[in-house]
Amino acid sequence: MSLVNPPIVSPPIRYQAVSLPLCHNFGIQLSILRLDETHPHISGNKWYKLQPALAEARRHPGRPILSFGGAFSNHIHALAYAGQESGIATIGVIRGEATSASNPTLQDAQRWGMRLVFVSRKDYARRYDPIFIDTLHQTLGDFQWVPEGGSSAAAIQSCGDIWSALSASDVPLDYLFCAAGTGATAAGLIAARPASVKVFVVPALKISVAEVESMLQAHWAAAGFLQPDGYQVLPGCLPYARLSPELAALWWQLSACYGVDLDPVYTLRVFHQLSRLILQRRFKPGTHVALLHTGGMQGLRGHADRLRRMAPAFYGPLPL
Ligand SMILES: *Cc1c(COP(=O)(O)O)cnc(C)c1O
To answer: Model pTM?
Structure first.
């Protein structure tokens, strides 16, 4: 895939001011940057990540895009809609049992015309293995391969374009907090960062700082960036998509009392880490801290019951 895609022209991003006692008491200005509002179905960062893949598909009419994801994948959901919208056929290789085809995420994907292929966890683990991709070609014919999460080298570059949509605000940012799954979004943001903004990366899985660092390094190498700086990686404390009673209670209170709606897999964890750092006085009074809302709200449908059931199990103080 060509790396010389033109910069992405995207709608400006709304800054939602968050008014929490936590912020007042520590003199912090907190904003949620509503990247999730970029498109009603092509969620948040996935809109940016998919643009180069869609451009490539338009250069090869008739060839489907094939990509990978779990049963509640925001990427699969976004790709299915984007494919329908652009008249591009899509194939989703889904980890796990075909019974998940009836969940809301995959129901949408099928309604939007995506063909689903279910593979065992063992096969899914081979998603970057050229021999496995070859066997997919043998059964499914020609396709354009897009990695899990849409995290291609070109996608890393287009995530850097998020900054141009952010520049709409009059209030200069000091810190931007971003979730990481594959780390491609964070890698792109860090590489294209304005000198005055430092980026914090919060993993959505149980993973060490060193492991996230090596993911970022691999993305930068693939996209041709040299060792960017001005960022900090925080450790990932919970396995992917796992909830704790504290996180469930935090989600509930943010949504019900403060009008802050986050997704439980990515941005809720980012908020949790961010609030801890405010409590630890990591930011000077007057600092403007922002959380990038990368979207993923469709995934809430798979978590809402669990969030409501778990939240009352937490009795400690919340970091608000
Ligand atoms: C996919 C996703 C991420 C992670 O993006 P990566 O580029 O894979 O790190 C973060 N937030 C949300 C809501 C997502 O859907």
So the answer is: 0.96
